[in-house]
Amino acid sequence: MDLVGACKAFVSVSERGSFTLGAAAARIPQSVASRRIAALETSLGGRLFDRTARRAKLTPFGVDVLPAAKRVVQAAEVLEHDARRAGRRPLGLAVPGSCGVRTLARLDADARARGVFLDLRPAPPAERAEMLRTQEVRAALTAVPAEEGTWSVPLGVAGAKPVATATVYLDTLRPGRGQRTARRVWLQPEDDVPHVRDRIVRARDALGLRPSQVAVAGSLTSAVAEVLGSADLLLCPAAQADELDLHWRPVGGVVLARGYDVTAGIGDDADRIRTALAGPVARCLGAKVDA
Length: 291
Known about the structure:
This is LysR family transcriptional regulator. Residues 1-59 form the HTH lysR-type domain. It holds the Pfam family HTH_1. The chain has 3 domains: 3-87, Winged helix-like DNA-binding domain superfamily/Winged helix DNA-binding domain (Arc Repressor Mutant, subunit A); 91-144 and 260-285, no CATH class; 156-255, D-Maltodextrin-Binding Protein, domain 2. Helix content is 45%, strand content 19%. It contains 11 helices and 13 strands. The protein has a 6-stranded mixed β-sheet with strand order 8-12-7-11-9-10, sandwiched between helices. A 5-stranded mixed β-sheet has the order 4-3-5-13-6. The protein has a two-stranded antiparallel sheet with strand order 1-2. Strand 1 (49-50) and strand 2 form a beta hairpin. The longest helix is centred in the first third of the chain and has 28 residues, at 60-87.
């Protein structure tokens, strides 16, 4: 028996003195209200209404148990209210600081449409891990090798001016003899992680580029400023280059990609993001969105 549903029908009918009006107020068919009340009477062991009266008149037994039934209904309403409020409590999620305002806003809106309310906290990789460790957030998009992540974001290089070739090879950045300055590839803080930084550094050394030709900027803003004021290049995904109004090309000869997974203090939070928000997170990161 649905105890809460039966008590709601009982209280509603008793307050209106009519099975028809009480059922309508409870938003159920009259037949359903009658069955629920009959089941409640069987469970409690006594008649709640005098069926011989023209109106739905309470029996003495019904009068005695009505206050308790009202408490059951009130408690259920409080529980439902608290559950709705808990469901709307924002889930603190640390996200890459490289994500733009528009992409983060789209992620927030898509999550709300799926019944998930987010409190987004943009930060570099190390700060995201620390925010999770100190429980400042409930979950974080953590940087992992692309082959190990839930989401993979291919990286290329982008410059202020269009590039004639379809692919940029790092060896074309090798300075000529006697050339004092050389073009650099700037890494933003989001890519200052071993599985990205070390791979491009190894490629740099193998191709005989100067150590200074791969540099890590203190912020995305400073990295973009370096690129806008020179022929230097920014390591970034294609979507981010479009947002920054830079000209992007893939890198040849070396595979560079960001990888992301979800880490959370509660497993359910991680599963929720991987399933319900898989597509919106992918779009936010610039990763491939599965059909």
